[in-house]
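Hi there. Long-time user, first ticket. I'm pasting a complex I've been working with (about 920 residues overall). I'd like to know whether the download I got is complete or cut off, because the file seemed smaller than I expected. Thanks.
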Amino acid sequence: MHKHLLALSALLLAVPATASAQRYDARYGLEPGAHDEIAWDFLEGITTEVGPRLAGTEDEARGRAWAIEWLRERGFANVVDEPFMHNTWVRGEERARVTGRYAQPLVLTALGYSGATPAEGITAEVVHLASIDALRAVPDGSLAGKIAYIGHAMRATQDGSHYGYFGSPRRQGPGIAAQKGAAAILIRSIGTDTDRLPHTGATSWPDGTVPIPAAALSNPDADNLERMLERGETVSIDLVLTPQFLGMTPSGNVTGEIIGSDPSLPPVLLACHLDSWDTGTGAIDDASGCAIAAAAALRVAQEGQPLRTIRVLFAGAEETGLWGSAAYSAAHADEKIGVGLESDFGAGLIWRLEANFARSNPGLFQQLANAVTPYGVVPAPQILATGGADLNIVRDQGGPIIDLQQDGSRYFDLHHTANDTLDKVDPAELAQNVAVWTAVANVLANEPGDIAGPGIIAGE
Amino acid sequence: MHKHLLALSALLLAVPATASAQRYDARYGLEPGAHDEIAWDFLEGITTEVGPRLAGTEDEARGRAWAIEWLRERGFANVVDEPFMHNTWVRGEERARVTGRYAQPLVLTALGYSGATPAEGITAEVVHLASIDALRAVPDGSLAGKIAYIGHAMRATQDGSHYGYFGSPRRQGPGIAAQKGAAAILIRSIGTDTDRLPHTGATSWPDGTVPIPAAALSNPDADNLERMLERGETVSIDLVLTPQFLGMTPSGNVTGEIIGSDPSLPPVLLACHLDSWDTGTGAIDDASGCAIAAAAALRVAQEGQPLRTIRVLFAGAEETGLWGSAAYSAAHADEKIGVGLESDFGAGLIWRLEANFARSNPGLFQQLANAVTPYGVVPAPQILATGGADLNIVRDQGGPIIDLQQDGSRYFDLHHTANDTLDKVDPAELAQNVAVWTAVANVLANEPGDIAGPGIIAGE
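Hi, the file is complete. Here it is re-exported in full:
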């Protein structure tokens, strides 16, 4: 919060520098010492003063209250919290120990919406499955009383695109294992680090499936378990997981606006999500995104009132299944959005500009390209932007979307772990994000014509 | 164990590579693909099949039994387990949560020999002390009912020499805080990483001091707590730590020998420690050291029977206060050791040769220098080797000591954390260690004369 800026400026010197000096680099259009005070104030503030913001909990509500105060103090108009109801799940005890000859503890964490073991736990034999496809292939009932283990290791990619395939053991694996009769399922973390910090994340259960205990091992623990399994003897595990379903509890979407001079024009929507997993403080996922979106809106306003209204949407309950994004779309389906952008991939450098209107409105796409190339961002007119989790409303309307692709090479080292904390954000990279978003939002908010252009949006 | 070598060789391909290709480098005297099968077999085996080996526990005893079997199968003679008694401490529950306005959990771990809170915990205000010197300076009684917090952050150094000064908040801080009436003490982890994995380690209590609860915060949690404290309001913490003192339980020292052809010559002692903290699997601290020492002894024997006996000492209960090293010295005080070396600083590349007889026996020191320079190791005759924790017997005898300094630039990222696991060891760096130790042990074990030489050992 800005009242703490004096203390904050002293503190900044003490923040451990993950930034190396060469990141302040002309290649990214940044001056030496580049720093965005507004974005950093949001990010530092909410991670320090609120911390974790698990969907549907009091912690998430505190996050909304904090964000509302921040937006109002910074000068946003029409700041509101739109409530919706959410199926809330909270973590309990979680521990595992190999029994028998290789007896030792394994570090794991329950997946969101995991079922529970009895308080005293279960002991069961581990069945090693090399991939989600191997799990799909086992006969029904063959896992009865067993713990299914999927060990497929994810690789790092700059655009994060492997998350789709390699995330399937987490998203679909537990449901499939339950249908095949497994007592529980363990997966190797969907992550690219070698820290003993497992990666949580939501799983989903097919209709009629009773949730079974489901957890992720850290990568080093998955390695160790696989070494034991490779020795050829039966490996059993004592497993305790006691999460709870709390039923429907309130969550909410926070919005705020920089009012444009022509209220007849549909607004520019800058989206992110405010909830986080409970394990970290949600610095990269996704306080950074909200910091970038809000700072960009304010930076545009600093240059003069824009033509269009700029609206920020801090969605609630994204991590547990895009609940806020869906609720926002349902509540505002008839209010046309001019164009939507989302930041939900950390604070790595933006490297690529994508849109879904590059062919329908090439002139505007070229304007945007001219605005971002000074920051090391290259337009990719051949790639169709689809937006992220928090842009349901724009997708549902078939509207214009822009993706400002961030470098996610190391994002999945931290994603959904306890390590998602403030020190992992490079202030200079955050500043580059704000600079790019400001440049793009400035063009969009001052565009009088239809952003989709005279042609047809690709993908419609 | 060697019976698993077939499975092991297949597995090696799957081990996450922390090694980058350029580490297989002519600068270190290594061929491409350099790998020491003996050392890796020990290291992979004990971390996979035994795991953590906390001093005085059944886990440590399983580690000794495993090591004895390994040494005998590999052909060591006179393999024995020499028992001693040890004041044993085990971890309990450990959690902390900031109360009030900035409410959120903090990640911490109890220091070895920490006192306990009641099961329901304590709630107390935090007093921020910038350093161990600031703690020493506060008036007696001024910390009554408070939680002292020391935040001094350690820097990485290649030779690890900052561990002395920066480790003092852990070693002496709790005793000083207790004497000044504190209800508990928290310290910033003695570590150089930014992971949410706190660093444990033993503390010591002055005579007559009742242990208070004492724990280390991870570096990101220490950062976060300091940001809260900087805001100027009172910060209180709910703290639960329930470790237990088990009293005196058995530990032991494992030794084994490669028999030399001249039993009248004092042996070459290659030392390490077999116990580890309970948080990790003790891969770098110190299964690597035992793997290096044992592999070097076997590599010397492969070249023919040496003149002197080579003895390996796998000390017990090092982490909790060098109990095994002291017991070994007391039991064998009158049996002269020819020369002692220790490996207890991970498996980083060896970069410097030091001895305490460079001036008393310059000819032998030159021979050793000639043996190690091909591996990128440079002699430092001006530095006086003092040996490490497991060489009490040689220091007590005033005997010859060699230090083969390893690169510890990143050692304190992992030291005493859950992250001390097999994947953190680079097989090529481990192989360089074995190559250097083999070269040095070969010279020493075939030296007929007094290793101290005709002169006086420096420091005597």
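A couple of notes from our side: Chain B touches chain A through 48 residues (CB under 8 Å). The first strand of chain B starts at residue 77 and ends at 90.
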